[in-house]
Structure formats: structure tokens, C-alpha cells
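Sample log: Olfactory receptor.
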Amino acid sequence: MDGGYWTRVEEFILMSFSSLPTEIQSLLFLTFLIIYLVTLMGNTLIILVTLADPMLHSPMYFFLRNLSFLEIGFNLVIVPKMLGTLLAWDTTISFLGCATQMYFFFFFGGAECFLLATMAYDRYVAICSPLHYPVIMNQRTRAKLAVASWFPGFPVATVQTTWLFSFPFCGTNKVNHFFCDSPPVLRLVCADTALFEIYAIVGTILVVMTPCLLILCSYTRIAAAILKIPSAKGKHKAFSTCSSHLLVVSLFYVSLSLTYFRPKSNNSPESKKLLSLSYTVVTPMLNPIIYSLRNNEVKNALGRTFRKALGLRNCIP
């Protein structure tokens, strides 16, 4: 507000890590650039291998391919702009650009929560009903489950982003974050946001906790089924089929919960930036690595793909 009038915000300034020395920002730029490239290459490789190798055409790898698409989208929305702010190329982001970034952040985030729940259900069916697994998880069912996983991101992103950016903004236009997340942008609003904050809290709890409860239910049943297997070898084999997913879920939900469900008194902007890095930058890089290192089928498929690629290359005169 200036002289009793609302000022129209045309653009925002992303503060990112501007409080750090230039040398540290340059180091962060190189680190995040490497992570970004590894993330894109790793997830793209997972997509290509699961499409090319007939041994990986099962429902589990169909959902893994969807997860890799999500991680690539998540990274493209957040990381390129963050890299630009670290080098101080352009720390500004337009009003529309900020709204678009927030929209797709909510969309991909909501979709990932439900996709992880779908992947847990897939493991539940595979372990608890192995004989009926091919019939239950047929192509039509897995396609419906994938659509159902992606869909919740649309209403969540549409309502929250449209509502937030319909508020008047005044005073400073500095967003104390490395991307347009809801809480730091909300602090710039010059209106009563109590109702929106209630909606945001309830919506976040539903989008995050509903899939989490479904995952817990699935793994409770999985654990009970594994305990009934008489041989240690059989138990280990059954657990190994879901250990990668369990690790990915743990990384995602722990970082997400620490970011959005901590008491405000313990949630400084700088600590939130660091926690946000874990699920927006680090976890998307780790997912393909976890599935590659802990899954023999993926490792074998990667080996076959590389050998085939090298063989074709050697045949070229």
C-alpha cells in the first residue's frame, strides 16, 4: 500500500539464497546444476529402459515410468529458475510466471502423493494376490489408476493458485524462497487470508495424508503377508520387490512433513528453503538411483540396453 492506494504487482523478486556470499552461491549453482542434469538423465533413462525392455513391461514399471515423468516435470518447474537466481542472471519472475510455477508445483506434488499410493497398492496386489496379479492389474486397470493418480493435482493446483493470486498485493514484492511456494507469496498479500489459510491447511492435509494412509494400509497388509512366508529366502525376495518404493516414499514424506507440518516457531525461512531442497531437488535425483541400485531387474535391463547399444555401434562401419 502506498499513500492509501493498492499497488499492482507486475513481478516478484525471488530472494533464493541471496543472503549467502557470492562464492557459496556459485558453489551451490554448480552443485544444483550437476544434480539437475543427473536427475534429467536418470529419469529419462528409466523411461527409455522400461519402454524398450520387454522384461520391464509389468505394471510396477509402468507406474515407475509415470513417477519418472513426474520427477522430470517437477524439476523443470523449479530448478532452471533457481539456477538463474543463483547466478543473478535474473532474480525477477513475472506475476503470471510466478502463478504458473506455483500451479505446476501443486499439480506435480499432488500427483506424486497419489502415484506413490498407487504404487504401494500395486505392490500389495503383487505380494498378497500373486496368482491374480496379472488379471487384477491388467492394462486397462493400470491406465485408470495412473489417470486417477494424476487427476487430483488439477483441482488442488487450480483452486489454490487461482484463489491466492486473486488477492491484492502491496508493499514489497520480494519472495523469500527459491520458487513461488504458497506460504512466502501469501505473506505479501494485503487482505484477510484467514479463510484461504484454513483451506490451504485442510487441502494440504488431505492431499498429503490421504495417500499416506493408503500407503500405510497397503504396507501393513504386505508385512502381514511376508511374515506368513515360511522360508527366509522367500521373505527376502518378497520384501526386495517393495524395498525401493518404501525407501522413495520415506524420503518424500519425511522431507514434505518436516517442511509443511512443523510448528511455525521452528520454521524459519532459511530452514524451510533447505528442507524444500530435499523434495524438490534431491529426491527426484535419488529415485532413479534407488530403483537402479536396489532392483536387479532394472540393473539387468540397463546392462542389456547398454550392451545392445554398444553392439549396434560396433556394427556401424
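Observation: The chain has a mean pLDDT of 86.
Observation: The radius of gyration is 22 Å.
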